[in-house]
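Technical note accompanying the year-one report. For the benefit of new consortium partners, we illustrate the data format agreed upon in the data management plan: each record pairs a sequence with a structure-token string. No post-processing was applied to the example shown here.
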Amino acid sequence: SVVPNKPLQMPKDMAALPAPTPGGSNLVDPTPEADAVAALGGNIARGTPGDAGLMAQVSRFGVDPSIRQTLAQEDLDYRRKHDGRLLERWFNVTVYYNAYSRQSLDQYAELERWRARGVRNVSAPPKD
């Protein structure tokens, strides 16, 4: 969470300095996302904060500005309905994973299902 500033550099030409931008970014400010793109061989100039085509596709049916609040409330309601047994509530034991266990994916069973179909996944652990 703590990123050091970039080292200071002397400009090549003191007469060609950029105009100051009050409240703007500084040349020594850390840019971890752009640095990661450059380190992986990407082109920083081609990257955009939001891909216009992707954004158009995912928002084609409209966008609910309060979706985060709606989902948070629905999640809270669901967890209240599945809040555990008396002693779990009494001792404040988390029941989050138990509440969502029916919705979780068994990753190893899914991996075997895809392997049985002949699909390779080179990043998956090898068969025992």
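Partners are asked to follow this layout when depositing records. The first helix runs from residue 32 to 39.
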